[in-house]
Specification:
The structure holds two protein chains of two kinds. By secondary structure, chain A is mostly helical. Chain A contains twelve helices and no strands. Chain A has a domain of 178 residues: Orthogonal Bundle (MetI-like fold). Chain B is built from ten helices and ten strands. The relative contact order of chain B is 0.20. Classes of the chains: A mainly alpha, B alpha/beta.
């Protein structure tokens, strides 16, 4: 019953399985490596002061990144206020309305935008907002992150809305429910978890952006009381500390990077939690 | 069960002639020269027939014969296909449903629909599914909503099974219960006509029997048009039967006659299982 080259085929099979396993490990390895380094270098500097104090002037040791942590959340909030409604409604248009030819162009544009290097975004907003306003500002930083979120949120929203079976739309329309109420109260509601997932992932993605913020939010050593002023953000603070010549700042940069990674990880775990629930429901 | 098909004498009854038992009743639907096109494809060709009120009219025919399109043209659901257009006329108790000032939304409130695949809204409870048509059309009165819920679920023969768990998720029901929930949901907006697109074809025989009993019960109040692939089902539940083939209405008449002595050769071939 054995084929003539049976042993050779079994060997090839085992070999290829090993190769794929090694590749799979290589995918995970960087995460482990990054996390290991960040914890090793940064965890010791993640003390109370790190979360509560402002950066100390050059030469003084200690201090923290409280303003950068708060600044990142403010920027993310601004970005979400801009990016979520436009992105979600744009996704609704793509999925529920529009003609196939128009949608093709919108999708194409969104995909191109998703591929635009982030520093380009920063330069555009710099020219459009920072130069006319004669100064860096939190507004400009929130705007650039929000603009980057729009195509991300739009595409994921469209995708999850497309996953809603057409039967639900038909059922709603056949009850004499208007098209927009069907879109909002039936289709979006059915896909809500998927939309939230997409929004969170987009926020996680822009949370770590540094290049566009260099041209817009700029960074700040102090608290920002006015959104027309420059504002601190974790990636900016990490960047400026990491390229500084001071050991204390290097340690704080590690801690900042760890903080950023934990934030992104936290968002991703939250997403997992949401999607797991959704999977169970659709599996009923 | 069905009686055996005998061909026998075939009195000449032309296509598109409505049944005659209730000649005095006003037809619920009057369809005249209805043609429906999807792009350049003519899927319904000059169909004319009258649907009797408070009776069951079955639409039979092989796949692709236009029966679902016919059903959907009655509540203008075929317009969801972007390139759809129609010619001809459909009147619902005298009102032209394709008149210029008539919104499809209004037509659909008067003509309810039940689909082949049961599709209760998965994010909603049983009671929310029943009342969704009312609530999303602006009904806020809780007493009315509660009354309609019980009434509709009773009419759909589901009340006794779900009255103790109205707030459970709709998708926790069995397949047959879900389909009856969809019927209750359609009834809650109090339509005048109920369209059913193969409502039992995804159900087991027991659940199918329940739906069929329900149809016989509902026709006391509602006008029902049902598309079915199951000829025995058409024979069991309907008063009139229309046979469609390749977009044309081949024959229309009292169900007993269509199944025992059809006037058209093609009808006879189809109902006896010789093709289709």
């Amino acid at each position: 019953m054995t084929a003539p080259n049976h042993r050779w085929r079994k060997f090839k099979n085992a070999l290829m399985q090993t190769v794929t396993l090694v590749c799979a490990i290589l995918v995970v390895a960087p995460l482990v490596l990054v996390f290991y380094h960040l914890v090793k270098e940064g965890f010791s500097s993640m003390n109370w002061a790190f979360f509560t104090q402002l950066p100390k002037p050059v030469g003084e040791s200690g201090g923290g990144m409280a303003n950068a942590i708060v600044g990142t959340f403010i920027l993310l909030g601004q970005a979400a206020v801009l990016g979520v409604p436009i992105g979600v409604l744009g996704g609704v248009f793509l999925s529920e309305y529009g003609s196939s030819r128009l949608n093709w162009w919108i999708r194409f544009a969104a995909d191109v935008l998703n591929g635009v290097p982030s520093i380009t975004w920063g330069m555009v907003v710099y020219a459009m907002i920072v130069v006319p306003m004669k100064g860096f500002s939190a507004w400009a930083g929130g705007l650039v992150l929000g603009l980057m979120m729009i195509p991300l949120v739009m595409r994921t929203t469209e995708e999850v809305l497309q996953l809603v079976p057409g039967g639900y739309r038909e059922a709603a329309l056949a009850l004499g429910i208007s098209k927009w109420r069907t879109s909002v109260q039936i289709v979006i509601r059915t896909a809500l978890k998927g939309i939230v997932t997409g929004v969170l992932l987009a926020m996680a993605r822009v949370a770590g952006e540094t290049a566009p913020l260099l041209f817009t939010a700029f960074g700040n050593q102090y608290w920002t009381h006015n959104l027309n002023d420059p504002i601190a953000a974790l990636p900016l603070q990490i960047f400026s500390y990491a390229i500084s010549p001071y050991d204390d700042w290097h340690r704080q940069a590690w801690a900042g990077a760890l903080m950023l990674l934990v934030l992104v990880l936290f968002i991703n775990v939250g997403v997992r939690f949401l999607t797991r629930d959704r999977f169970r429901q659709s599996n009923r | 069960m069905m009686t055996t098909m005998t061909t026998g004498e075939k009195p000449a009854i032309s296509a598109a002639q409505p049944g005659n038992q209730s000649a005095s009743a006003v037809p619920a639907l009057t369809v005249k020269n209805l043609s429906v096109f999807f792009g350049k494809n003519e899927v319904l060709k000059k169909v004319s027939l009258d649907v009797t009120a408070r009776a069951v009219t079955a639409i039979i025919g092989p796949s692709g014969c236009g029966k679902s399109t016919f059903l959907r043209s009655i509540n203008r659901m075929h317009e969801l296909v972007p390139e759809a257009r129609m010619t001809g006329e459909i009147r619902l108790f005298g009102d032209d449903i394709y008149a210029r000032n008539v919104e499809p939304v209004i037509v659909r409130r008067r003509v309810g629909m039940v689909f082949q695949k049961s599709n209760p809204f998965p994010t909603m409870s049983i009671v929310d599914n029943v009342t969704v048509g009312l609530r999303l059309n602006g009904m806020r009165n809780r007493a009315v909503l509660a009354e309609r819920t019980e009434q509709s679920l009773r009419m759909a023969a589901l009340w006794d099974e779900v009255k103790d768990r109205l707030h459970a998720p709709a998708i926790s029901l069995s397949g047959g219960q879900q389909q009856r929930l969809c019927i209750a949901r359609a009834l809650a907006v109090q339509p005048e006509v109920l369209l059913m697109d193969e409502p039992a074809s995804a159900l087991d025989p027991l659940a199918t029997a329940k739906i069929e009993d329900l149809i016989l019960e509902l026709k006391k109040t509602y006008t029902i048009v049902i598309v079915t692939h199951n000829m025995q089902q058409a024979a069991r539940v309907s008063d009139h039967t229309a046979f469609f083939y390749l977009g044309e209405l081949i024959e229309f008449g009292p169900t007993a006659k269509i199944f025992t002595s059809p006037s058209q050769k093609r009808t006879e071939d189809y109902v006896t299982g010789r093709f289709g």
